[in-house]
Amino acid sequence: MTSSSRLTSHGTIKLPTITNEPMKTYAKGSSERVGLLAECDKILKSQPLEIPCIVNGERIYQSNQDLIFSREMPSLRSHTLYHMHGADKQVIQHAIEGSLSAKKEWEDMPLEYKCAIFLKAADLLSSPDFYRYKINAATMMGQGKTMYQSEIDSSAELIDFLRFNAYYASQLFGKQIDHHSAGTWNRVEYRALEGFVAAVSPFNFTAIGGNLACAPAQMGNVILWKPSETALLSNYLLYLALEEAGLPKGVIQFVPTKVPSHFGDVVLNDTNFAGLHFTGSTKTFQYLYNEISTNLPKYKSIPRIVGETGGKNFHLMHPNCDVDNFINQTIRGAFEYSGQKCSATSRCYIPKSKYATIRDRLVEETKKLKIGQPNDPTSFTSAVIDERSFDRISGFIERARKNPSCKIIAGGNCSKEVGYFVEPTIIETTDPNSETMEQEVFGPVLTIYAYDDSQQTYLDQTLKLIDSTSAYGLTGAIFARDRADISKCVERLRHSAGNFYINDKSTGAIVGQQPFGGSRTSGTNDKAGSEYMLLRWTSVRAVKETFMPLKHWGYPSVDME
Ligand code: NAD
């Protein structure tokens, strides 16, 4: 990405060149592995951290036990990571008022200073001497990611979001009107929204919490950020990095809550509510959307609603594809981070003519995946996030076990004795509409289905089946060699995935390279990691200036008496 120049009141600014953050490998014997594992050890040896709300820069601790949430480590339940001091309704109200007080100064701050804050935060997060190992370790132990998975998330993607958002904002600010009638000058201003934005983030990506709060802030908005109660170890550190980078008090208020609905109850009822930046499940998003619709008459403006939600992501194997590539991409897509990525591969379509061989290879490879502690370098994946998730995922597995059209051919064991462990599981089904072919499991469960490729029309029929099976439209991949068939898949599956892959897995979108988001019930598809997203957080004002005075109100076409 080339750097961009922008004219300001006092000269021209040019952002540093923005490129994707290089990833560390954490290979055996590397100094980065030693550094990261040392931070994990510190977390294991520490007393539980007391995590406050942070409102106008003030730390708020609660004495009322009903507001305090104790978080066990997902892979080692005996270890308590932190006590979260959640916001009650009064604290949330106070945070709204504080953000509105901070608004004018933030909005008026020149773009280059806002960019400097987020670019500095990115550098602090990138540096092993400051946050890199600490926040990766927090993501590992707190959210159950292995070394490389946390590097993808809380280093690479988070840093990319901060840097690329600064770049996209500066690009947007440079966009001006090119057409002017004689004697006039037209221009546009990129204003922040009137009021405050609520950012509500999920547990599964530290980077998403950062983007939900920081993208609207980059455009001059003030934010109430409600992180997920199960991702606080990393999200709190991220907030500290933003403070260290110079983010003014009150611009982003850090308000976790023990009861999530308390946040919505206050925020969505406030007349100054101007926008929701949400990532999480479709069910929660639909609930919040509905509340906003009901409350519409209360608001000073029509709120912007940006929501990225669930998925039921597919891999389609064409009979002539590269088999090794298909197997390896499917294993990564389905089982990395225990399938807890919104883009995780969860339904697979395999041609009957090759089915037995492919199924056996998938099973063979899946059996090699070790699940264990996130800081054990031999673990491919670790525990799922919490008991609620564990119960939901094991419920899907148990129902599949009892379903005559399904057979569990790999994994299927679950235990919550030490941590919330679910084995990478493959379900074979003869019913393309069985529960785990249609619904989001959000766990390490892949369902495979053999489609009949003996007829000439097999591809048309299979594409129709893929397109119509699930209510979601997030990600999907096809594996094929034949260009005519690739082209047919791309065309027929146009609306079945907002992020579509050819010979690559359904996961792994990179900021600045594959803008991310899906349609149908997967969200508003406003594309995180792109200029489209930043456009949602600004309300453009058009200004026309006329240089020459009007001498008379009449028109030549109207004959004057
Ligand atoms: P979730 O819906 O349970 O929670 C998301 C956030 O909403 C959390 O902060 C939660 O506390 C909050 N919340 C829940 N009820 C609320 C209420 N009534 N009022 C206000 N806030 C409320 O989702 P999760 O389990 O944290 O995340 C997993 C889900 O997120 C999956 O469905 C996954 O597909 C989706 N996801 C989507 C994307 C994407 O980009 N499309 C990315 C990551 C995760």
Percentage of β-strand residues: 15-25%
Strand order of the largest sheet: 16-19-20-15-14-22-23
What is the share of helical residues? 25-40%
Rg (C-alpha, Å): 25 Å
Shape: globular
How would you name the CATH homologous superfamily of the largest domain?
Aldehyde Dehydrogenase, Chain A, domain 1
GO cellular component, one term: mitochondrial matrix
GO molecular function: L-glutamate gamma-semialdehyde dehydrogenase activity
Pathway: Amino-acid degradation; L-proline degradation into L-glutamate; L-glutamate from L-proline: step 2/2
Pfam families: Aldedh
Topology (elements, then pairings):
Elements lengths: L4 E4 L2 E4 L16 H15 L3 E3 L1 E3 L2 E3 L7 E6 L2 E10 L3 H20 L2 H16 L5 H12 L3 H27 L10 E8 L4 E5 L5 H13 L3 E5 L5 H13 L7 E3 L5 H8 L5 E7 L2 H14 L8 E5 L4 E5 L5 H13 L9 E7 L3 H13 L19 H16 L3 E5 L3 E2 L5 E2 L2 E5 L5 H4 L6 E7 L6 H12 L2 E2 L1 E5 L3 H10 L6 E4 L16 E2 L10 H5 L3 E8 L15
Parallel strand pairs: 3-7, 9-10, 9-12, 10-11, 12-13, 14-15, 14-22, 15-20, 19-20, 22-23
Antiparallel strand pairs: 1-2, 4-5, 6-7, 8-25, 16-19, 17-18, 21-24
Bound molecules: nicotinamide-adenine-dinucleotide.
EC number: 1.2.1.88
InterPro entries: Ald_DH/histidinol_DH (IPR016161), Ald_DH_C (IPR016163), Ald_DH_CS_CYS (IPR016160), Ald_DH_CS_GLU (IPR029510), Ald_DH_N (IPR016162), Aldehyde_DH_dom (IPR015590), P5CDH/ALDH4A1 (IPR005931), Proline_metab_enzyme (IPR050485)
Catalytic activity: L-glutamate 5-semialdehyde + NAD(+) + H2O = L-glutamate + NADH + 2 H(+)
